[in-house]
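S.,

As promised, the heme C run. Input:
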Amino acid sequence: MYKLHRRRDLMTFRGCIAAVVLSAGFASAALAHSGATGVVKQRMETMKSMGDTMKQLGAMMQGKQAFDAAIVAGRTSVMKQHAAELPKMFPKGSTQHPSEALPKIWESFEAFSKITSELESTSSALGDVKSADALPVAMTAVGKTCKACHQDYRKP
Ligand code: HEC
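Predicted complex:
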């Protein structure tokens, strides 16, 4: 009996966290902006891939997909790599249509790059997760990092 309750509480908890993490705005962003070219297109595709990773791991967190530590490690290692490459994908003034990047990126490029480093470390920690129970905390940390950057540097 006790076990059953615990399990249900845990599922509810995971569901809530998933809602928070996925509401960061990337869950529905499947529509990569058509018409984008060059570096804008490249970074949109990179962001999209990171969004897909969060969606897949979100499904694991909600119990919709079986937990698989190898998938978690594999996908997050790609995400970490992407995070490291992000600063290069924002050359000065690259706001050409249909980019949603804000000029503030280049007014405070150091702070912007610092968030990409944070994404490297939160992705790394997520990659070390070895059980479904540990996913919510690690996912939330990553989700917060995505959100922190979008809030300040991406058109709402
Ligand atoms: C350091 C800042 C930063 C971080 C960290 C960041 N993003 Fe972004 N993201 C941006 C900016 C800026 C844009 C707008 C890019 C553009 O339109 O040129 C964007 C756009 C997006 C888009 C829309 C892409 C499109 O096709 O228009 C998605 C999806 C996205 N980010 C997902 C994520 C996810 C998921 C994470 C975390 C795992 C993340 N982002 C982390 C800055 C960031």
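Residues 39 and 73 are 27 Å apart (CA to CA). Residues 26, 29, 32-33, 40, 43-44, 47-48, 50-51, 54, 86, 99-101, 112, 115-116, 119, 142, 145-146, 149-150, 153-154 surround heme C (CB under 6 Å).

- D.
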